[in-house]
Design brief:
This is L-ascorbate peroxidase. The chain is mainly alpha-helical. Helix content is 45%, strand content 4%. It has eleven helices and four strands. The longest helix is centred in the first third of the chain and has 24 residues, at 50-73. Bound molecules: protoporphyrin IX containing FE.
């Protein structure tokens, strides 16, 4: 087994213990960085005595089955997650800001959904766990390699000072993507653990789903219809024709109401995805689309809240 040392970091092979995470993208070279707790006074997981750690793990496992559905509904169990505002958080933001331009924002925000959106309450699989780095060859993830590459640059810099999980980097990167395009400022907690491998396949919504299919899919992930509509507003970024591709605003909802893809809409069938078109045909979704089209502040507020919920989906926090 190959082991190497890179700067001041210990780099081990993929078969490392449960508290390791991939430092490189290529599955053929799955180096892992030794995990360090992000708790301010807890610099290495090895500081914890094995018996007390066993007790923590045992009590976590014992209580987990009954806690899981509730933890998702209440935004996941974050009691031990590191709150934003620490110097580690600022470091992550700073390094991300260096690599994230407006032009790269859409891809990065999509990356967040493709990592976190695999979560399902019933089998408690998937979620915001960095597994996207193992899933880049999947057809639904076409085009996301370049977004991971962009973030890899920042992650390498951050890791040299304070090792960070892919899940945390991607969660914070999404907030930066929204902010750099003029959207709301969102803060998220840190302390997500990375998955050692890919999530199950087929968990992301297909673009051909109708509104009831979309609602069912999002409900299985713990999101209400209102949250489905608020999250879908992310499509305001990118080149699907909802206003400027690099402005995070409520033009998604305004354009949906115009239905430009219909013959009477008179513009282009190329605007939006079938799943976007489906939302506006559903009365419950339509009510929210109208509210967000009229009131951008309400959209920003709701998007902020549901974004935090998205990036906490299925998370295993460091201290668990
Ligand atoms: C509601 C179900 C959803 C479906 C079916 C869906 C599907 C898609 C598809 C097919 C694309 C086009 C990809 C391409 O250009 O090749 C796309 C783009 C995008 N999606 Fe979604 N998506 C959904 C929800 C979301 C959510 C919840 C987010 C984030 C919170 C998101 C963020 C984005 C962004 C930002 C883009 C533009 C990417 C770019 O232009 O580079 N999507 N989505």
């Amino acid at each position: 087994m190959m082991c190497s040392r890179v700067s001041n970091r210990i780099v081990r092979c993929a078969s490392g213990g449960e508290n390791s995470y991939p430092a490189k993208l290529q599955p053929s070279c799955l180096s892992t960085v030794k995990f360090r707790s992000n708790k301010p006074n807890d610099h290495a997981s090895s500081d914890v005595s094995s018996s007390s750690r066993r007790a923590v793990i045992f009590s976590s496992i014992a209580t987990l089955p009954c806690l899981l559905p509730l933890t998702h509904i209440f935004g996941s169990l974050q009691a031990n997650a590191m709150p934003p505002g620490t110097k580690e958080y600022l470091l992550i933001k700073e390094e991300l800001r260096k690599v994230l331009t407006k032009g790269k924002a859409a891809g990065v925000l999509r990356l967040v959904f493709h990592d976190a959106g695999t979560f399902e309450i019933d089998d408690n699989t998937g979620g915001m766990n960095g597994s996207i780095v193992y899933e880049l060859e999947r057809p639904e993830n076409t085009g996301l390699k370049k977004s991971v590459k962009v973030l890899q640059k920042a992650k390498t810099q951050i890791d040299a000072i304070h090792p960070v999980s892919w899940a945390d980097v991607i969660a914070v990167a999404g907030t930066e993507a929204v902010e750099v395009c003029g959207g709301p400022t969102i803060t998220v907690s840190l302390g997500r653990q990375d998955s050692p491998g890919p999530d199950p396949e087929g968990k992301l919504p297909e673009e051909t789903l109708d509104a009831s299919g979309l609602k069912r899919c999002f409900h299985k992930k713990g999101f209400s219809t209102q949250e489905l509509v608020a999250l879908s507003g992310a499509h305001t970024l990118g080149s699907k024709g909802f206003g400027s591709p690099t402005s995070f605003d409520n033009s998604y909802y305004k354009v949906l109401l115009e239905k430009p893809w219909t013959p009477s809409g008179g513009m282009s069938t190329m605007i939006g995805l079938p799943s976007d078109h489906a939302l506006v045909e559903d009365d419950e979704c339509l009510r929210w689309i109208k509210k967000y089209a009229e009131n951008e502040n309400m959209f920003f507020e709701d998007f902020k809240n549901v974004y935090v919920k998205l990036v906490n989906s299925g998370v295993k926090w460091n201290s668990l």
